[in-house]
Amino acid sequence: MGPQVVALIVLLLVTALLGLVWRSRQGRLRPHAVSDATADWAPRLSDLGVGPGSRATFVQFSAPVCTPCRATSRVLSALAAGEPGVVHTEIDVEEHPDLARESRVLRAPTVLVLDATGAEVVRASGAMTPAQARRALELATGTVSTRTVDAGRNA
Amino acid sequence: MTRPDPSTSEVQAVAAGVPAPTEPPRSAATDPPAPAATEAPTKPGIDARGPRFGAGLTAALLAVVVLLGPSRAGLALLAFVAFSFLLGTAFGTQGTWQGLVFRTIVRPRLSAPIELEDPRPPRFAQAVGLVVTAVGVGLGAAGALVAVPWAAGIAFVAAALNATISLCLGCELYLVLQRARRRRARR
């Protein structure tokens, strides 16, 4: 085998590995570790003119060049429409780059899930499935403990 | 299926600066709900399978560039791929030869698209591909032929992931680039 063939085989393996890692991270729920001021969204929501949900608020950061943002937006709108006290709001990172920076959002879509007080409980990046969204709602409303979040990462 | 692709005419109309024509025929069962009238001209849709098919063709060519190694033939093929990315960056993925192959050969054999997507994300990915392959072509033309398979390899990873699991480069890079741009602007 020539070195070029070896290079291509290595390249295929790297591609497959990256693909598996990337796909497993889509929509995975991550508990919010730091309880600092950036986790409190109540003032920001009022700045944005968004009424917080009485049970939970899904704050979705979206970019103009992001296809899964649309799909995630549909999933979360449907969830908010079917659940009383749940609000879904979408923030365009082009219009609000500061909010994205403050919240350490580096990928789109990133969804911050806030509890009834407007504090971030969990967040997820990448396309979100309805099951992942429902799981996030359970975590935000305190139906299940955040400590079990890892068990639900592939939900 | 011989139904005309509603997306392309709409996209080209928007690109040419004229308002989109009246709503193309839609089948309620398969198409997403029509966007609100006010955002119709700014939110055209393309068949999401087009860019993915094109990325598959591009990945195959880039794999050949890797097999050709640091050679003049590899440089020539990489230059062709870079030119394709230039077309995609300028006109969107519908304006590339891969888009033409999809429309004329593949699309008529497929059922109607389940979902129409925004043409901007694949166009952003074309721009990223253009930068990576153009660097390889530039270095190769300047005598550093070893850069040719390296650039092709990096572009191959992105194109192959786009074709197989629809990796969204805009999702991963847009915010990072935005931040870098703002940091530079502040200096």
Properties at a glance:
heterodimer, A: 155 residues, alpha+beta, 5-stranded mixed sheet, 18% strand, elongated, B: 187 residues, mainly alpha, two-stranded antiparallel sheet, 7 helices, 2 strands
Rg result of chain B: 18 Å
| Helicity level of chain B | 55-70%
Oligomer: heterodimer
Helices and strands of chain A, in order, run as: HEHEHEHEEH
Shape of chain A: elongated
Alpha-carbon distance between the termini of chain A?
43 Å
Instruction: State the largest interface.
Output: A-B, 34 and 34 residues
Q: What's the β-strand tally of chain A?
A: 5
Give, in spatial order, the strands making up the sheet with the most strands of chain A: 1-5-4-2-3
Globular, elongated, flat, extended or rod-shaped: what is the shape of chain B? globular
Give the topology, please.
The complex is a heterodimer of chains A (155) and B (187).
Chain A: H1 3-25, E1 29-31, H2 42-48, E2 56-62, H3 67-82, E3 86-92, H4 97-102, E4 110-114, E5 120-125, H5 130-140
Parallel strand pairs in A: 2-3
Antiparallel strand pairs in A: 1-5, 2-4, 4-5
Chain B: H1 6-15, E1 46-47, H2 49-68, H3 72-91, H4 97-106, E2 116-117, H5 120-141, H6 147-165, H7 169-186
